[in-house]
Amino acid sequence: MESINYQNFRIDAENICVDYNGKVALYDANLRLKPGQICGLVGMNGAGKTTFFNALTGFVNISKGKIRINGESVRSAQKDQTIAYVPQNEGIDSQFPVSVWDVVMMGRYGSMNIFRCPRESDVQAVKDAIERVDLTDHLSTPIANLSGGQRKRTFLARAIAQRASILLLDEPFSGVDIRTEKLISELFIQFKNEGKTILLSTHDMIHVREFCDLVLLINKTVVAYGETSEVFTPENITTTFGGISPDFLFGPES
Amino acid sequence: MELFPFLTLDSFIRDPLTHEFMRKALLMSSLVAAVCGFLSSYLTLKGWALMGDAVSHSVMPGVVVAYALGLPFSLGAFIFGVGSVALIGFIKQKSRVKEDTVIGLVFTGFFALGIVLVSKIKSNIDLHSILFGSPLGISLSDVKQTIFISLLVVILLSIFRKDLMLYCFDPRHAKTVGINVFFLHYLLLTCLSLAAVVGLQSVGIILVVAMLITPGATAYLLTDKFDNMTIISVLSAIISSLIGIYISFWFDLETGGSIVLAQTFIFLFAFLFAPRYGIFKLKKLFAGYK
Lengths: 254, 290
What we know:
The complex is a heterodimer of chains A (254) and B (290).
Chain A: E1 11-20, E2 23-33, E3 38-42, H1 49-57, E4 64-69, H2 74-79, E5 83-86, H3 100-106, H4 120-132, H5 148-162, E6 166-170, H6 178-193, E7 197-201, H7 205-211, E8 214-218, E9 222-227, H8 228-231, H9 234-240, H10 246-250
Parallel strand pairs in A: 3-7, 3-8, 5-6, 6-7
Antiparallel strand pairs in A: 1-2, 1-4, 8-9
Helix pairs in contact in A: 3-4, 3-5, 4-5, 5-6
Chain B: H1 9-17, H2 20-46, H3 49-69, H4 73-94, H5 99-120, H6 127-132, H7 140-159, H8 161-169, H9 171-176, H10 181-203, H11 208-222, H12 226-251, H13 255-273, H14 282-287
């Protein structure tokens, strides 16, 4: 008798539904990802991308279905620092009085004591993370003084410092400069080799083809899911975007 | 009344200190200011100014009922403060009315209830001192209560200082790394209610919201570091209290109003001359033109 070994999946979301005060945001959504896989999450605004992220991080409760992270509950994934969330630039208060160092240190909070006193290992993790995103010159710069790209890299560094095995990235390429875009793509390859699992939402179809092994097309529920080469077809994309032709979305040549 | 009733700066500062009630007022108001100032940086960053206004007004019936029943007034105030927030949350969730409307509706309702209760319950409640504060006439039992509540709030805020900062900045991340966001939300609300209770002794219910937002707003204009913001906020709150009480003593002005006005002037000063975020950007003026 064959049974599914849930341990094999980093993320295993089964028929999940999320509603806000009776308004359905997401229904019957499924997703299975293994270590080392990069999956693109594609859909219109309001299609439930952020809701999907929120469900995986436990920021909203699912009303139906089941989520297992490394075979365990979302709750224990939170305790184990398994998931890191990299917000959209618009999703954070850029005028908040904290420095690059402060933000990246927040990645360590979950594994510190109640007073959040950094140990030597936390300081080292933060230093290493900041170095990997090339912000060592900006350690004590307030985030208010950073460019969009630098800010994005700061939050990536926070995810690195957290040592999470799953990274959820909300629009990682929106509003960033070329240098940051290049650095992020290099990091993705490194993350993949380290066996991390990445789920990223994007509006940019070219990025999906470039980085994503898998793609999840959603419009309140899963429209299509599978290998990018098979699933990312003009027909599926058209369905996802409510009948708007992909030519219109990303040019006739693609 | 002469324009300058004091002779020297020395007598300006020393003379009031010969009065027992002035020493007590200065000490207690500084303590209250420090507590409100500490909390203020969180409230301004979280965007809870209106919430602060709501909670501080909503404690009114609690204070009146507690007085009438002979209970510590902080208890009544606390119950109504937290209750108002729960009610705001409930109405917001169950109706289509927008949040700021719900907040305004609930707190004015509570406040009105308080005023009606004062007129109905014939006791020795001094409406004026509840509405406008009476730091000069603070009783011994009030002093004990204020010290107890202030220490409690300071200890809570100190322990959860960094968690609350993270909660204000990025609650989603806090939740993702297993920090109890629900607890932090209610912790901040609890501290807000308690701070409103002690703050109303100094400046009264109507102006207590100033104690909860102005110092934080001033500090926000002066620094880009969270810890410095807290320190500046506390200091500016204490200094405003001292200035307000001295001015009110010498010029026979309403004390609560004087304290809040002092805070407002310090804010205006920061607004105009803050090195980075002020209108005139002092730093640039000093640096001169290229």
